């Protein structure tokens, strides 16, 4: 064993040395070596390793190098699961090729997506050949021709290639050409030999490195039974998202627009019934026509009842509330029978009527329908199954009796009520379907622990601390010299004029410093109030103000902020993590308040009740650890390279006054100073920036940091 350990470490050291000598500007990083050795030991001995690896460690290469070295010695393939597409792209384009150069082996890496992300040749051919029947209104002939050209040239069939080709398709059209298990004819399909989804699966089973995302890994039992069972190692990067994604995959959400979208894919105006109806031969197919008419007439009642249900549910979301819990104490029996019961009944009628259409058309055959109609029958049956699944989903979210499940309402992207069911705990299911399938697992992220305590994470994921090795690596950056930390307690978040005073502080900082400033807020309501306060003064100073809009992608806003100078960005939600602003792209980070979850959040309430029932303290065991992790993620936006420099200002006096304030203070990059004076704050921050920038020589130049960043 000692010889094996020594050989493994020698190979690992040689690979890292090859990077240091062969890659321009590469710097040796002790944290990266430490993480790589820990992972190498875990793979040799078996087990689960949890590593918190701050920005700059180079964690991607730290886990790739030892895993690939084992692969070339005959172990199973390496599976890497991420949460974001951006990290997946970084791995496949930069980090995996870099690791292969370091070990001197040209290993094969592939990205495996969910089935619905691949083109179905058969469905696309039918759409393009019968575009007058299939194509939705508003899609130009030029777009359709570009789509045809792409389908003939693509080697992967990945639908996310389309935007890069300048082809923008509405979601409804993408759904009609995507691979769909409800429609797939399997091996009997005439296009089976060229099926992109199946080819991607076959490639994944032969590849050395397979990149997937958490949603696919946690939702696809076939993937876990084949690929994961044969894997030599599983890496869960961005592991702080695993619990949330698992809860989403195991849950159900259903709103009015889900019914509307499926109706649009079904009806005789824009949906599949249109194809069958227009393919009827003149004077033939009377029985089919009758059943189509019945199916058509079954759709409006579904939509009407769904709309009535949405109106009734609005009563549980008063005054525009974002969410509300459903329970036996506040149950759905108060809904009018014409809403819930009527919807359930009409769903059953619609699915049966679609089956009748398919049966009648199949019976009549070519005598009644032209070829395109017969080819569409699989799609008709698929719509029937989709409506059956919708009925099942609806019944599951209104059951309200299931233990260990939270039932609640929230709002969809159009602010309409949506029914939800989510498991309160996912650890047991993760243990059964994931952690017991592979015996060499690494979980890693920049933020996993609370004060180097991994207990909350392990408990949430169903992992026994005695069976897990863990390490919290220190930052490789001189953060105390790179960051000025401050607490401004000039106003408390619950003060009536807090938003106005915070807006004034934003204006003062932006006007005095003229540096890119990101303001992290915890709600859109507060964001709107702060924006209203500072928009006019900033405009008069010629300072651009960017603000996040609910329901819109954060990516364009982040890109604009990154490219500008002296901008102010007000962000919430997605801006607390997952966005990088290196260098001068972000120098002033203002955190408006400590990011505790809303105490009335239905899922938080359900989880808190379970903790209380087990004798725990919901604040200590749940609310506080989650807020600290979120706080750390927000702070992580500021320093992304060894050359970055900036200030983080926390505008929440609880940092000083609350008993738990020191828990948050300990996570700051440097010891904070506190003041209630805006002028003193401005003076100290301005003076600090006037000092010469730090030049440490630690880490890589920007292009290398981009390749190795978490």
Protein model, in words:
There is one protein chain. The two termini are 33 Å apart. The model is unreliable at 694-710 (pLDDT under 50). This protein is globular. 50% of the residues lie in helices and 12% in strands. The chain has 30 helices and 18 strands. It is an alpha/beta fold. Strands 3-4-2-5-10-1-11 form a 7-stranded parallel beta sheet, with helices on both faces. The longest helix is centred in the middle third of the chain and has 28 residues, at 286-313. Strand 14, helix 24 (555-563) and strand 15 (568-571) form a beta-alpha-beta unit. Among the domains are: 2-115 and 197-232 and 438-472, 3-Layer(aba) Sandwich (Rossmann fold); 479-693, P-loop containing nucleotide triphosphate hydrolases (Rossmann fold, 3-Layer(aba) Sandwich), CATH 3.40.50.300. Keywords: ATP-binding, Helicase, Hydrolase, Nucleotide-binding. It catalyses: ATP + H2O = ADP + phosphate + H(+). Its cofactor is [4Fe-4S] cluster.
Query: Roughly how many Å is the radius of gyration?
Result: 28 Å
CATH fold label of the domain at 479-693: Rossmann fold
Strand order of the largest sheet: 3-4-2-5-10-1-11
Q: Termini distance?
A: 33 Å
Quaternary structure of the protein:
single chain
Q: Helical content, roughly?
A: 40-55%
Q: Low-confidence parts, pLDDT < 50 over ≥5 residues?
A: 694-710
Give the full name of the CATH homologous superfamily of the domain at 479-693. P-loop containing nucleotide triphosphate hydrolases
DSSP helical segment count: 30
Mean pLDDT: 90
Structural class: alpha/beta
Overall strand count: 18
CATH architectural category of the domain at 479-693: 3-Layer(aba) Sandwich
Largest sheet: 7 strands, parallel
For the record, the CATH class of the domain at 479-693 is Alpha Beta
Which band does the percent of strand residues land in? 5-15%
- Approximate shape: globular
